[in-house]
Fold each of these.
Amino acid sequence: MHIDPFGVEIWMNEWEFKCELNLAETCVESLTIEQLLALSGKNASDLSALLDLKMTYGEIRGSTRLVRAICALYQRQTAENVIVTHGTIGANMLVHKSMISRGDRVVAVVPTYQQHYSIPASIGAEVHQLRLREEDGFLPDLDALRCLVTPQTRLIAINNPNNPTGALMDRAMLEEIAQIARDADAWLLCDEVYRGTDQHGDGMTDAVADIYEKGISTAGMSKAFSLAGLRLGWIAGPSEVIEAVSIHRDYDTISVGKIDDHFAALALESSDRVLARSKKITRDNLAILEDWVAGEPKIAWVKPKSATVTLLRYDVDMPSEAFCIQLLKETGVLLTPGSAFGMEGYLRIGFANPQADLITGLAKISDFLARL
């Protein structure tokens, strides 16, 4: 089976561990186990509870404790509507493999994580892309979406909050998109891995699985929960989807690791404290980035309303990949080229890093821009 090379992952694989300041990072500053224990009201002595954990297979769909904690993140999801996966990347792959067949019509809103158009295309689906535009605040044109979604549409794929723009669709827009899907009797898949990082209110984006009867939400422990090292995600959606996913999942997952399951449950049971930390980091750091953009004449943007990343439009006559490689070699700062998302002329920056790294990295980028 042919599949297109995964642009952003190839970039990160090549450069992520060769930089001094990783402003391409997409996770809120990662937690240590010690920090997770402290946020959970525990300490190092509680690790002794793991000593009796027998390292056999875990519960196939996720432990009862973990699934209960995941359900608490939603308004309408119960245990039969949730299944645990190897990261959100595994969740997305399983949904596409389970729900899409050759010849199906898929509508994908881009830019987004490449899985949502390259996997359906590799299966043989007819993929139609709706491109987000800066002049629309990187929000979808719903009239254009209505034109693309025909009665033959099998699935619509969206990403909210959006990677790489940081744009946020509010509940009213999600309900309109759900109605577009409903009119076509289409599934609506929403990659919600950045859920919990909104810049206002409680920080928690409305979930498509709670809004639409054929809505599918994917998420995981990496971005807002600062625990990418656990490699644990999930799918929330109708039982029909969960059962279809279960058939495919038996071939490539069986179960997630028991230690991953344990620490993910611990974090989700303390989600209020974990997410409070993430909100403070993302909100404080975005204010720093906003001040920097305001004072940098060669940079423009649409200020993000959520997520940990955003796009910067740069006024330099240089392809984005060449810009990022030269920046890295001269300053040690890593960004992600917009070309990895089909967005030439832009750079993706992550702003949920340690604050000192962000401040130092932005100063180095300014010095680099001044020399161009």
Amino acid sequence: MAGDPLSSSLLGALVGDGEVAALFSDEAELAAMLRVEEALAQAQAEIGLIGEDAAFRIVEACRTFVPDWNGLATGMSRDGVVVPELVRQLRQAVGEPYERAVHLGATSQDVVDTGLVLRLRDLAALLAGRIAALVETLRLLKRRDGDVGLVAHTRMQQALPFTAADKLDTWIQPLERHEEALREMEPRLLTLQLGGPIGNRGSFHGHGDALADALAERLGLAFAPAWHSQRDRIGAFAAWLSLVSGTLGKIGQDIALMAQNEVGQVRLASGGGSSAMPHKSNPVLAEVLVALARFNAGLLGTLHQALVHENERSGAAWTLEWLILPRMAETTGAGLAKAQALADGLRFVPSAAGKGA
């Protein structure tokens, strides 16, 4: 089995999400970084830091760039970040007399972080769409089955009669709060990173804020002071990912318990088989939601270690984010996809003890 569980073709079929994973592929990261370098050159020409001819040539080179992937991998291993080797290759592609105008005044973290934010924008839109679809499916289920009488359980014991609508509200309402939280977070999350070598924009010779404003506008991001060592934006988004997974895990846990033969409060469209007991239909999708929730909860604690970001830049904290954030994103995406499939085939069954609800 692969060292990264999400890259395993077998385990990935159970817990992976190819659409989310594609946003964190090498190709997607490179495309985002080239978009940043392109927009940086255009913005610098706009405010007079480089000539229009230089910007035109850089844009042309970015759009036709053919990377030496082996060289990029070697550079990543040597420098701990891919941008120095990328800039070397890009300058070579631009050629004289404009090669020195490439990446002028910027630092590697400006390009990597802004490229990440561009991809997080796509991720946020994808996940928001999935949450909205899931909420709508659950609302339709509530309209259809909401009057079905069930028995509530507290501390794993039968409590009092209630309805399927009561149960569904405990699933829908937190998802609605997650939708709202993401909308509120996006203006803070989707911000430009541009600080230059030590984060004070001093390398742009008094034009740092004007350049940042022009670059943010070109990329469709919010203007903000440099946040090289201030990783609360990433930490907050990771926490949101874990909260979404946790809500989906609660839904999965509820369904798994309600689908037990001796409880029988829900029926699933399909289940998993057993190699030894052919009569069984296991609630696989529900179980996966529980596992993904616990996985993301564990990853969140590790991701938040990257908030301990020494001085003006930390290679260790930065690398930790690269290791963890893509896994958290894919885990959340997979959970939403599994939850949607589960909800699509879910049906509530009246409980004998709950008929008086």
